[in-house]
């Protein structure tokens, strides 16, 4: 992701990377050590993305958005809104009512966070992206103050749609994100 961003040219196409990480806490640039309460056996990695601490693990869809914002005339706030709205629209496909909050980036369902955002912009190009909880072990979130908020409750799609998988969600999420920005999705 870093190498792609460093080496891309004005002609390089935008990309979306869908990944599923092993168990790891990532501490963003605004992260504070006191928000990592009891990591135990899960490694804590410093990240150059925005935001504070979060957890990544199996059953969570991480979507990295590698977009040339400058070339495509997209503002950072517009990108954040596109990410949030793509998740809201994706969840709507499974009748999950979700919403962004103006005071805390991400997407929420009944006050519980289901999706975290963390971006980095370098030379007008974005990297990092979002982490959508689909069907995962949420216990590690109790070991941190997610996104710097003590007691923030996390949720996942499987709480509303038992048995849902990343493969179920991936095509909907990527299509919704592209729709938000007016992009055409081209399969690799």
TrEMBL record:
Q: Which GO terms describe its cellular component?
A: cytoplasm
Q: Entry's InterPro entries?
A: aa-tRNA-synth_II/BPL/LPL (IPR045864), BPL_LPL_catalytic (IPR004143), Octanoyltransferase (IPR000544), Octanoyltransferase_CS (IPR020605)
Enzyme class, broadest EC rank: transferase
Where does this protein chiefly localize?
Answer: cytoplasm
Q: Which UniProt keywords apply?
A: Acyltransferase, Cytoplasm, Ligase, Transferase
- UniProt miscellaneous comment: In the reaction, the free carboxyl group of octanoic acid is attached via an amide linkage to the epsilon-amino group of a specific lysine residue of lipoyl domains of lipoate-dependent enzymes.
Function field: Catalyzes the transfer of endogenously produced octanoic acid from octanoyl-acyl-carrier-protein onto the lipoyl domains of lipoate-dependent enzymes. Lipoyl-ACP can also act as a substrate although octanoyl-ACP is likely to be the physiological substrate.
Its ancestry begins with: Bacteria, Pseudomonadati, Pseudomonadota, Gammaproteobacteria, Enterobacterales
Q: What is the name of the protein in this document?
A: Octanoyltransferase
**Belongs to which family?**
Belongs to the LipB family.
| GO MF terms, alphabetically ordered | ligase activity; lipoyl(octanoyl) transferase activity
Pathway-wise, it operates in: Protein modification; protein lipoylation via endogenous pathway; protein N(6)-(lipoyl)lysine from octanoyl-[acyl-carrier-protein]: step 1/2
* Amino acids binding substrate: 49-56, 116-118, 129-131
User: What positions does the domain BPL/LPL catalytic occupy?
Assistant: 10-185
- A GO BP annotation: protein lipoylation
Q: Which reaction does it catalyse?
A: octanoyl-[ACP] + L-lysyl-[protein] = N(6)-octanoyl-L-lysyl-[protein] + holo-[ACP] + H(+)
| EC assignment | 2.3.1.181
């Amino acid at each position: 992701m870093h190498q792609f961003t460093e080496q891309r040219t004005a002609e390089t196409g935008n990309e979306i990377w869908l990944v599923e990480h092993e168990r790891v806490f990532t501490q963003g640039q605004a992260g504070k050590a006191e928000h990592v309460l009891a990591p135990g056996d899960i490694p804590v990695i410093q990240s150059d993305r925005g935001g504070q601490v979060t957890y990544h693990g199996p059953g969570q869809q991480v979507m990295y958005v590698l977009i040339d914002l400058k070339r495509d005339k997209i503002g950072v706030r517009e990108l954040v809104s596109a990410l949030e709205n793509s998740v809201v629209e994706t969840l709507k496909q499974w009748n999950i009512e979700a919403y962004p909050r103006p005071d805390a980036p991400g997407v929420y369902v009944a006050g519980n966070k289901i999706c975290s955002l963390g971006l980095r912009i370098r030379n007008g190009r974005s990297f990092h992206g979002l982490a959508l909880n689909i069907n995962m072990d949420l216990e590690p979130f109790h070991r941190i103050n997610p996104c710097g908020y003590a007691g923030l409750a996390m949720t996942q799609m499987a709480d509303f749609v038992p048995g849902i998988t990343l493969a179920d969600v991936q095509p909907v999420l990527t299509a919704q994100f592209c729709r938000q920005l007016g992009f055409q999705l081209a399969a690799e």
